Amino acid sequence: MNPTANPTKKIATILPNTLTEVSAQPTKASPLGTKALAEWAGWLKINPHDDWDITALITACADFASAFKADPDSPRWISILGNTGTGKTHCARRLWIHLSNRLDWRKAQFNHYEIFWPRFVADLRAGDSFDLLRDMMRWPVLFLDDIGAERDTTGFASEQLNALVGARENRWTIITSNLLLDQLGAIDPRIPDRMIRRPNICVEIQTMSHAIRTLNAQPPTAHNQLPPSDR
Questions:
Q1: Helices 34-44 and 88-100 meet at what angle, rounded to 10?
Q2: What's residue 189's pLDDT?
Q3: Cα–Cα distance between 2 and 41 in angstroms, integer?
Q4: How many domains does the chain have?
Q5: Which pLDDT does position 214 carry in this prediction?
Q6: 222 in a structural domain
Q7: Residue 168, CA distances (Å) to 2, 75, 83, 202 in order
């Protein structure tokens, strides 16, 4: 399988393989065949590494993009959670670019861009960006990256996040976090509860990072080739 085959293939040519069924479970993506998986991996520009978690990530993104193509007026969320370095932000950004280039932004008051949540919370604490926060509640698509990574000893960040995502019901929303559902629930149970509501998609990635995978695939170093007695 070549995960980078046909990287410029138009999304419309691979959609029929992954249209989300109405009866599908809200937190599980539809299974992909080998060919469709390779095509979607190429579209996302990610190597599945024959890894179940990365395959689940690709499948979830395929379901989300397919749902948008099938009916842009039936929004949902996708939440990509789990280990750092596994391609969460990379895939989320691919979806964000795809949707944001196809939606109507004329009602937005601010220029739209992906929101790195920890930095945005720092701006809010400084008294800035509250007008932007209110505008983000109405954006046709929102990408929140790395929620839960901010320091939040007072609960300020979780209250702002809950207000934002509460206003995002029935709007296209893309979320990433290094935390899993239960860890997010320990911060604020309202957040993961919204993530798993039908027809939203939620995928948890607990595999090794691409950096560690690449390091493990490298040949032994000169140090590692020394006989045990010389190490």
A1: 80
A2: 93
A3: 9
A4: 1
A5: 76
A6: no
A7: 37, 10, 25, 16
CB atoms within 10 A of CB 140: 18
Residue type, position 156, single letter: F
Burial (0-12, 13-18, 19+ Cβ within 10 Å), 208: middle
Q: pLDDT (tens digit, 9 = 90+) per residue, 103-119?
A: 999 998 888 999 999 99
2 domain residue, yes or no: no
pLDDT at 127 over 80: yes
Lowest pLDDT segment from 38-42, 43-47, 68-72, 218-222: 218-222
DSSP state of 139: -
- Structural domain boundaries enclosing 35: 11-209
pLDDT level of residue 161 (50, 70, 90 thresholds):
very high
89 forms bridges with which residues in the sheet? none
How many C-beta neighbours within 10 Å does residue 64 have? 27
CATH (domain of 106)? 3.40.50.300
